[in-house]
Amino acid sequence: MILSCQIQLxxxxxxxxxxxxxxxxxKRVCFFHMSPMHFPAVMLYYARYHHFTLNPKxxxxxxxxxxxxxxxxxxxxxxxRTVTTTEMSLPDNVQTPPDYVALFYFPATxxxxxxxQAELADRRFPPCSTFKIISTLMGLDRGILKxxxxxxxxxxSLYENPAWNRDVTLQEAFQLSCVPYYRKLxxxxxRSYVRKTLENLHYGNCNISVWNSNGHNVFWIESxxxxxxxxxxxxLTEIFSGRTDFSPEAIAVLKTCMAADAIGSWRLYGKTGTxxxxxxxxxxxxxxxxxxxxxxxxxFFAAHGADPQRNLxxxxxxxxxxxxxxxxxxxxxx
Length: 334
Known about the structure:
Elements: H1 2-14, H2 19-32, H3 39-49, H4 63-78, E1 84-88, E2 99-106, E3 111-116, H5 132-142, H6 170-176, H7 179-187, H8 191-201, H9 229-240, H10 248-258, E4 259-263, E5 266-276, E6 283-292, E7 298-306, H11 314-333
Parallel strand pairs: 1-3
Antiparallel strand pairs: 2-3, 2-7, 4-5, 5-6, 6-7
Helix pairs in contact: 1-2, 1-3, 2-4, 3-4, 5-10
């Protein structure tokens, strides 16, 4: 039943836009949920959502397209990994907000660890400043950003964060989470390019509908764009596993921007995000990224937290990841 709902969600996401989005939807669902044995269910839902008819001249889909879809699904499902999921209780010595979830994905062993409130793993939230991961890649891909030292100019405005009141470089803008820099960056991209990039990445609901509404293009902050912690992990895994259209050079620049400190033998790479919940009116936070050890092994993670009684921020969620890692590694070693 759970799998059926996930397949339905994937096809709702793909809509009726053709086989390329169908293939992407299958790939996204099978990333954490499917194995080849689910192929009949995949095709059943594909036929259902496209009102399949065996008449090659049928109104919605030809036999040729259906056979192509079958072939695509066989290839995709044959490469699907059977992911082992472990739900881990939060350690007593790790302080987290009441509404908290963290996911850790080990691609080498196809092991996913979820701690906190597991039901929040699939709830979508505004990405807030974690979207700067994608904005950076798009800026490099479009040639707007040339490298870590790219400056976009400063118009003299005084912002709430004094560190933003100067002509910062890309690396500084990322690490300072400089909203004016990234607002200017996104404004130099076409709406169609951004939408297509998000669709190719299966980045949450891909909703950038508020773009250009009253000159507002910060669709990633407390706005129309939403993504779940599970989807964040999936997107990061695809990017840093080299399975997207972004160049290795662009990904290397992003990785340098994301570099943080070390946790034992693991190097931490990540991005915080903070935004206001429109219902509680309190700030809530993200921390997403990955860890890498000297052997090149990676652990991708995403954590989101909120407290209905107070404000919290991305850095607080970042600290929780640091404290959780030893317990997570212990769980996977069993």
